[in-house]
Amino acid sequence: MSTFIELGLREEISKALTDLGYENPTVIQEKAIPQLIASTQDLKAFAQTGTGKTAAFSLPILQQLDVNSKETQAIILSPTRELAVQIGKNIEEFAKYIKGVRTTTVYGGANIDEQIRSLKKGSQIVVGTPGRTVDLIKRRALKLGSIRWIVLDEADEMLNMGFKDELDQVLEVTPKEKQTLLFSATFPKEVEAIAKNYMHKPIEITSGQKNEGSDDVSHEYYVVNERTRYEALKRIADVNTDIYAIVFCRTRRETQEVANNLIKDGYSADALHGDLSQGQRDGVMDKFRKKSIQILVATDVAARGLDVTELTHVINHKLPDQIENYTHRSGRTGRAGKKGISIALVNSKEKGKLRPIERIINKKFIQTNIPSGKEICQNQLMHLIDKVQNAEVNTSQIEEFLPSIYEKLEGLDREQLIQKFVSLEFNTFLAYYENAKDLNDLASSRGDSRDSVGRVRPRDENMTRFFINLGRKDDLNPARLIGLINEQRITDNIEIGAIDILDTFSFFELDKNFEGQTLTAFEENEPEFNGRGVNIEITKKERTGGGRGRGGARGGKRSPSGSEGGGFGRKRSDRSSSPRRSSSSDRKPRAGGDRPDRGTADKKTGGFGRRRRES
Ligand code: AMP
Predict the structure, then answer these.
(1) Nearest CA residue ID for atom 8, ligand 1
(2) Pocket of ligand 1 contains residue 115 by CB under 6 Å
(3) Single residue among 387, 412, 433 that ends a domain in this structure
(4) 3-state secondary structure 95-158
């Protein structure tokens, strides 16, 4: 293994890298840096997130930059604001011992005048999102006539997001004699077309095998159906007591719903997607980086700029529409030499997508059983005992209270004391999982049962279907409806079945045994929702047509925290020191259509005819 100096980098750069804790170059750095220092040949690099590609292209540029000239010499295009900011920040860190280097980062959604002012001062390196870069070129604030390098970072993602026209426009205004560096995790034909049209005999390098997943990531799949998908997610979170994960969803709405449900159920979770303001997104990312959120529910695009190296899991709540994106997702874990697990929740139809992914990552998915209630309780209990064992005791602080505590507990022997302590901490959790069903059995059966003409009957005879006079127009969504039901305190752990949210009214299914209590609770509590009185009625009418309406979801069981303040790793209303305290449980669900997230930095239309599903 070489050192950075051996790769040809100057002392000042190597010193900055040491400050950052970079001891040795990564594979892609080892291959790209000497190549780019020695040659002006174009370069095409197969590199995934987390391989150290930012330094791979930035360091040779810094090495050769003319700091005596103020002209823009390098333009780096990246798909999202977050990634652009990250790259700009990295370059400043790399350049901290080189005098006279100026970098400007430009992106949509921020004050353009400030960016113009910064460019006017003269920046040798400009990092930008494609939309804003084109805008600044058109305003003549950004001049690329003298550039020596253009970097297309995450080229596949820029094209995915519909930035083909912008890439063309930027490339058109750059001089012929320049070095084009293209970095991409996948090489669909659209990326190859860019390479073909704009690059001259590029040299190819790779950070491993093309598109292949990291050796440090194992890939598992769990078979679910729409009824068990969310419950399975919760069980995965519950069985992994120290989980630190990104849950990937395909659309903004799915993202917000899953996050709302997790927050409501007391998990330390939050959502990250393009419907949030930049301030909200920054806030969420910051909390996640600092680990005050353990589970981040995100769209592919929004999670791009997030640089965290210690994820224990990546969970595909739904597999991405473009199977190539699976490598982007799973590449978020197993970084910096750490092991990680990438989990896919798949129904029987989605299972078919695994095989092509296996071919890309060159690895097999392992089918794993959704953890049973018993396994979860066992793990949680042992986690608790470990914490007790490792707890630091500050005798001086508790000393004065001890005599009265000892006196109170005098009658209990050691075993009784342990039992009571465990029960105190654990009863709610045990109760929640006591009669927990085997989701692996449920998953193999269909969620819906249809009669011979395709009408959908209530999923099981034990459910009663209720009509409620609220719908999407009232901002009702499944998470808020579950919240409303839970607020009525009908009974602990009530089973909630299918939910159909329609425009002006909705339906939900609840455990038949609590039919009367449900009606009474709503009658007596007289709940209001967004200022409207709430009415519910039992409906005997069967649901018809092709299943649930838009916004339909399954409720699942109320979690322990929903009723009594939670079990382990969940928020407890009576104990603010919960290890998985939710930091944003008071946030209202945000509006947003069910469309794929393309980020907010630069909103564009078009693309290469591959707009993903809008539903
Ligand atoms: P990137 O693929 O550029 O997003 O880098 C992924 C992560 O690895 C970032 O947190 C970098 O700071 C870090 N990194 C990059 N190169 C090295 C290196 N040679 N040694 C240690 N960490 C690195």
Answers:
(1) 52
(2) no
(3) 433
(4) CCCCCCCCEEEECCCCCHHHHHHHHHCCCCEEEECHHHHHHHHHCCCCCCCCCCEEEECCHHHH
Residue 221 forms part of a structural domain? no
Instruction: Decide: 131 in ligand 1 pocket, CB within 6 A.
Output: no
What is the atom index within ligand 1 of the atom nearest the CA of 4?
Answer: 19
**Could you give the C-alpha distances from 151 to 4, 44, 127, 385, 601, in angstroms and in order?**
21, 10, 9, 52, 19
Closest CA to 475 of 318, 588, 370, 306: 588
Instruction: Please give the structure tokens belonging to residue 2.
Output: 């070489």
Q: How far apart are CA 199 and CA 195, in angstroms?
A: 5
Domain that holds residue 125: 11-206
Which residue lies with its CA nearest to atom 18 of ligand 1?
22
Instruction: Report how far ligand 1's centroid is from the alpha carbon of 544 (Å).
Output: 54
Beta strands in 446-521 (DSSP E): 449-450, 456-457, 463-468, 495-501, 506-511
Residue nearest to atom 6 of ligand 1 (CA): 50
Is 103 among the domain residues?
yes
User: Measured in angstroms, how far is the CA atom of residue 50 from the centroid of ligand 1?
Assistant: 6
| Ligand 1 binding pocket includes 55 (Cβ within 6 Å) | yes
Q: What is the pTM of this model?
A: 0.52
Distances (CA, A) of 58 to 25, 93, 131, 362: 13, 11, 22, 30
Query: pLDDT tens digit string along 447-472?
Result: 433 332 233 334 457 788 889 999 88
pLDDT at 560 over 70: no
- Domain end, chosen from 146, 174, 206, is at 206
How many independent structural domains does the chain possess?
2
Residue in 106, 15, 24 with CA at minimum distance from that of residue 62: 15
Q: Calculate the CA 55 to chain-centre distance.
A: 24
**Which of these, 598, 511, 558, lies nearest to 261 by C-alpha position?**
558
Q: Answer yes or no: is 382 within a domain.
A: yes
Domain-embedded: residue 484: no
Bridge partners of 341? Answer: 218, 313
Give residue 370's identity as a one-letter amino acid code: I
CATH of the domain at 120: 3.40.50.300
User: For ligand 1, is residue 305 a contact (CB within 6 Å)?
Assistant: no
Tell me, using a 6 A CB cutoff, whether residue 13 lines ligand 1.
no
Which band of pLDDT confidence, cut at 50, 70 and 90, is reported for residue 540? low
Contact indicator for 120, 288 with CB cutoff of 8 Å: no
